[in-house]
Specification:
6-stranded mixed β-sheet, single chain, Purple Acid Phosphatase, chain A, domain 2, binds zinc ion, 6 helices, alpha/beta
């Protein structure tokens, strides 16, 4: 399976045409949030419709720069991985966006991290998508050494052990890292023409960080 990972588009689509060949050849296109730059459903639709010209198989979570309408649009279109699992060719895709309201937890139910872990029960191979990376890794390290990642996300990844975890958010920290059996990928901001091409079989076979 070939996965193209995008993140941090921030409403900038001018690099998509140069990614056309890679996008078209992918089995799945993942978007790790900040699809818009403080936009809503209309902004998200414009970007997704442009991407769909190249590939209709898109799964996404919003980021901190996406308004509430972005998640509503993604959910309506069946593209959202927040609180949702999608199985494709034996791979379970799931994800979350920690900035979205957590109503069941507020009313005493399991929080979004527990729900995500439960949703992957029985999955032989999982791919996990978040906007914010796992805390304390090379893919969350800001210039100067501070970490922009999230501790709960790291704990969840260590618990569910997906083969691949894709995130973005820390624009300067494009790269790959490992957390136990999990390959972490931050493709870098698509607004600057960055993406990652990932080949997945039983394990992650290769990660190519690309720039157009
Ligand atoms: Zn961003
Ligand atoms: Zn962000």
């Amino acid at each position: 399976m070939v996965i193209i990972a995008l993140s941090d588009i921030h409403s900038e689509t001018r690099h998509f045409a140069a990614m056309a060949e890679a996008l078209t050849a992918a089995d799945v296109v993942l978007i790790a949030g900040d699809i818009t730059h403080f936009g809503g459903a209309t902004g998200a639709r414009e970007i997704i419709e442009e991407l769909r010209l190249y590939n209709p198989s898109i799964l996404a979570v919003p980021g901190n720069c996406d308004g509430r309408g972005v998640q509503e649009y993604l959910a309506r279109e069946g593209l959202s991985l927040h609180d949702r699992r999608v199985d494709i060719d034996g791979v379970a895709f799931a994800g979350l966006c920690r900035w979205l309201d957590d109503e069941p937890a507020a009313s005493g139910g399991p929080d979004m991290y527990a729900r995500a872990a439960a949703s992957l029960t029985g999955a032989r191979r999982a791919v996990f998508l978040t906007h914010q990376p796992a805390y304390g890794t090379t893919v969350d390290t800001l210039p100067g050494g501070r970490h922009g990642g999230n501790r709960e996300t790291r704990a969840l990844i260590e618990r569910i052990e997906p083969v691949l975890a894709v995130s973005g958010h820390v624009h300067e920290a494009a790269g790959t890292d490992r957390l136990g059996p999990t390959t972490l990928v931050n493709p870098g901001p698509a607004r600057r023409g960055r993406y990652a091409r990932i080949v997945l079989s039983e394990q992650v076979e290769s990660v190519e960080l690309c720039s157009v």
